[in-house]
Amino acid sequence: METSNPNPKNSKLRILVVDDHPNTAITLARAISQLSPKLEVLSARSAEAALEMVQDKPIDFLITDMMMAGMNGLELVEKLQSHPAGRPSYVMLVTAYDVPGLKITARRLHVNEIVVKPVRPERVCQLVAKAIEEMGGETPTKVPEIKTMVKILIADDLPDNISLLTRYLTNEGYTCIAAGDGAEALARARAEMPDMVLLDMNMPVKDGFETLQEIRSDPAIGHIPVIILTAARLEPMDMQSALNMGADDYVTKPFDRRELLARIRTRLRVKEAEDVIRRRNRELNLLPEIGRELSARLDVTDLADIILRRTVETLGAFMGQLILIEGAELIQYTHQVSSDNHVSFSSELPDLQPLIKQLQENRQGLVIDDTSKDLRWPMNNAACAMVIVPILGRSDLLGLLALAHEQTKYFKQEHMLLLQALASQAAIAIENARLFGRIESMQRELSSSILNNIAKPLADIKQNCQSFGEVGKLNENQKVYIKNILNSTHTIEEQVNKLLAAAREDLAKYAHVTPIKAATKSNTVPQKLEQAKTQKKPMPITSAQL
Questions:
Q1: Cβ–Cβ contacts within 10 Å for residue 169, how many?
Q2: Burial (0-12, 13-18, 19+ Cβ within 10 Å), 535
């Protein structure tokens, strides 16, 4: 991605590191500051604090964590795009969730690099150094070049072996990095994050067994496949120990080139499948996090904003739409990613009633590869891909959640499954919000009923009892009778006041049930949505909004 030149040769580059972990931001900022004396490195523990720091003076580089309390990393990036002094020239997003679509969403917001945790400071420093060099700045020293192809680390103390293996692998299109001993192999693995390690067993400083053990015990690099290379056939017990430690395969020297390459390709295919599983696990880890954020809201509009923002960010869509069914009406909410290249659709969508009926009957979502070739869409509709899933309540359909992407055939089955899981959480939150609304309405009606039907008649009784003495003189029996009436009235009045106080307390408690700071409202919710709420009329839905 292209970056603007902030003239780093003539002034200090300002780099801002943002992470809500107590020590991560400071540690990373300290490591980056060691690259060059011409860097001014700042750190912040929240997106809000970061915005405060750049009010008066812009930054050149932004390195931000994705998931933070309150405003997340993408929201911070979006706000800095409109900074009066100009947006950052380079943006790095650090995330624990390599979910589908995140790179596309980040690219729309001009994010230059996405780094998936766990990541070491050395890796971030490499990326920063490379960015400085590409922007024409002074290149920091002692920073290794960053490779982008499939990368294999060769750990061997014999230069001839490294040269031979490097020639074999580069001819196959792999990128090679080398290490002469076990300690260097560990350092290069942590800094370069290779896709595979070819590990010689007989090396100085640390032998292959010790190096393998440390690789497998390090969460950051423990998933990297390791193929053992040995000059002599190991004893069965030694090979068993190596495999038990986590070696994926072994090759005995002198090796056959074709056999070695076949074993490498096999292990890389297995790693690719394992990477998919790890990514799916990270996606699943998103669900409870989003669920917690939804459970802290009881307002449907707030829920709609969170649901759309998080689903659009997670799946890389350029637009999302939430349509809720309220009786005979369809209420819609829309969120669109801010971008320099907006994709607009001017033609109207087809009648949603058949689609809603289909979702009610099948209770499953659908993927549309190309809306211009789908018979349900008008022939003049611009081509885009869509994924639509139902929001299913306990007994009926609450609405639907739809995402659009400008690239045809973008959405896959895995996107729909993840979106359906998110829609299930949204359904629970929406039903809770509606239930709270009904309870709140009932409590207010009860309070009003108590005031009008009980409290006021009681006041009339008390006033009438007090006015009896003005009509004429009362005998003792009449006085006792009126006194008993007043005492009973007073008791009932106390109970009524307790009921009213309990109702007010419940309303106040639910009104403050959102401890999480409310996210920035989407500025893409159509204005006529508010009209539909006030006028109570069904709102026509056009493809310009979906």
A1: 21
A2: exposed
How far apart are the C-alpha atoms of 379 and 388, rounded to whole Å? 20
Q: What are the tens digits of pLDDT across the range 346-403?
A: 334 566 778 888 888 888 888 888 887 777 766 555 558 889 999 998 888 999 998 8
Q: Rounded to whole angstroms, how far apart are CA atoms 264 and 226?
A: 10
Question: Tokens 């139902």 correspond to what residue?
Answer: 390
Amino acid at 258: R
Region of 323 (left: φ > 0; alpha: ψ -120 to 50; beta: rest) is beta
How far apart CA 505 and CA 492 sit, in angstroms, is 20
Residues 212-226 have a mean pLDDT of: 91
Q: Is the peptide bond before 254 cis (omega within 30 degrees of 0)?
A: yes
87 Ramachandran zone, left/alpha/beta (phi>0; psi -120 to 50) = beta
Instruction: Confirm if 61 and 13 have CB atoms less than 8 A apart.
Output: yes
d(CA 209, CA 226) in angstroms, rounded, equals 11
Residue 435 burial by CB count (10 A; 0-12/13-18/19+): exposed, middle or buried?
A: exposed
Output the average pLDDT for the chain. Answer: 78
Local confidence band at 530 (pLDDT 50, 70, 90 cut-offs): very low
- Going by pLDDT thresholds of 50, 70 and 90, the confidence category of residue 152 is very high
Least confident of 142-146, 180-184, 352-356, 375-379: 142-146
User: In a 3-state reduction of DSSP, which class is residue 171?
Assistant: helix
| Cβ(189)–Cβ(211) below 8 Å | no
pLDDT surpassing 70 at residue 292? yes
Length of the chain: 546
- Using CA atoms, how far apart are residues 400 and 392, in angstroms rounded to an integer? 8
Sign of CA dihedral 311, 317, 319, 320: negative
Distance CA 45, CA 26 (A): 9
Average pLDDT score over residue span 449-457: 75
Distance in angstroms (rounded) separating the CA atoms of residues 27 and 121: 8
Distance CA 215, CA 484 (A): 87
Structure tokens at 257: 């080139």
In this predicted structure, what is the pLDDT of residue 196? Answer: 95
Q: What are the angstrom distances between the C-alpha of 359 and each of 5, 319, 356? A: 51, 21, 5
DSSP state of 64: E
Band the pLDDT of 466: cuts 50, 70, 90: confident
Name the burial class of residue 413, with classes exposed (0-12), middle (13-18) and buried (19+) by CB atoms within 10 angstroms of its CB.
Answer: exposed
Pairing between β-strand 385-392 and β-strand 397-405 as defined by DSSP bridges:
antiparallel
Here the contacts of 352-360 (C-beta below 8 Å, separation 24 or greater) are 352/323, 352/541, 355/388, 355/400, 356/325, 356/397, 356/400, 359/388, 359/390, 359/397, 359/400, 360/390, 360/396, 360/397
Interval 37-63 mean pLDDT = 87
pLDDT the model gives residue 464: 79
> For the chain, how big is the Rg over CA atoms in Å?
33
